[in-house]
Amino acid sequence: MTTPSQTVGPFFGFALPYAADWELVPEGHPGAVTITGRVLDGAGEPVPDALLELWTGEPGDRGALGRTGAGISGFGRCGTAPDGTYRFRLVPPARPYLPLLVFARGLLKPVRTRVYLADVPDPLLGSLDPARRATLLARPDGQNAYLFDVRLQGEQETVFLEF
Amino acid sequence: MTHPPYLYPGYASTVLRAPSREPLPMKEDPEAAELTGPVFGRGEVDPLDADLTAGHAGEPLGERIIVTGRVLDASGRPIPGTLVEIWQANSAGRYAHQRDQHPAPLDPNFTGAGRCLTDDEGRYRFVTIKPGAYPWRNHPNAWRPAHIHFSVFGTAFTQRLVTQMYFPGDPLFAFDPIFQSIPDPAARERLVSTFDLDVTEPEWALGYRWDVVLGRTPMEDA
Predict the structure, then answer these.
(1) Torsion of the alpha carbons at B6, B11, B13 and B17, rounded to the nearest 10
(2) Out of A64, A106, A124, closest to residue B17 by CB
(3) Which of B18, B86, B160 sits opposite A101 (nearest CB)?
(4) ipTM of this complex prediction, to 2 decimal places
(5) Domains in chain B, please, with CATH?
(6) Which of A136, B104, B108, B215 could anchor a disulfide with B92, C-beta 3.0 to 4.6 Å?
(7) Domains assigned to chain A
């Protein structure tokens, strides 16, 4: 008798963000990369009130909420800015992908996807046609930086997953 | 169907945000990163974070309540040590959020955000103030029933749940598209807490009980 989902609504911003929530590793950490992007709706407009959660699949060594000192956290959270942008700083895990959850006003349940940092042989990527596969591939954006937009709806809609 | 659909036009904000394609069913993969999830340590959460009436210069206005229950997996087993976060409007129906324009008073003694880890039996417990109903602009004369937002992690990223807990007998249920978006009326009722005299503390606070049951993970035994 599972508990149903409800929308995160527009007013989570004073409650769910926490200090350095988007920084899974501190600035200057060896091997760190940044992923930035925008969340866009079906009209191509930015979604300014989404909350993204990134899980590396590896617990790290400094806790999920604790952000002081050195070390690695396996979990990060980032609310979108008024222009729909988000960011994460992390060390890429051994797996080629990063699970990503997006919550927002207007989403009665979250959408889940994966961010792939490279187009590698992978059962999920391999099952998709090139246009759909491209929605899961982060684009390199200079040194140690990637771009990954989430399109909730429409022609270039991100591939969302169900487990 | 336990969960609401993405597209529910009665809730206007879903129209441009609901994905138009069905999510892709993932093939079973025991190595999938989504079958694990973040672990939160006792050192990361202050026990005082579970008392939303504390931490300010004075007592907040409104009806003091205790909200408690268990976090369970799909087989009914308690999930210990998992993070539960809550947020809510104050007793007048106003959020401590800059974008909330409802002309109801803010309460300098109430922020409305809390968190805790479940204990060894999967129990959480918050002390707070009963939130007020509030208007929103979804449709003419739209009002949200009083609710507390809950965020629950569980043991796998696939179990991650954000939802809302309601209070028994709210006359606004029938008019609220967010509540009504859940297709099965029995599933809707699972979001409604129960008044519990055993949780109620004499001369101090009314008690409500509400359990959270997370979804089955793909590799979980039946």
Answers:
(1) 10
(2) A106
(3) B160
(4) 0.96
(5) 46-213 (2.60.130.10)
(6) B104
(7) 1-110 (2.60.130.10)
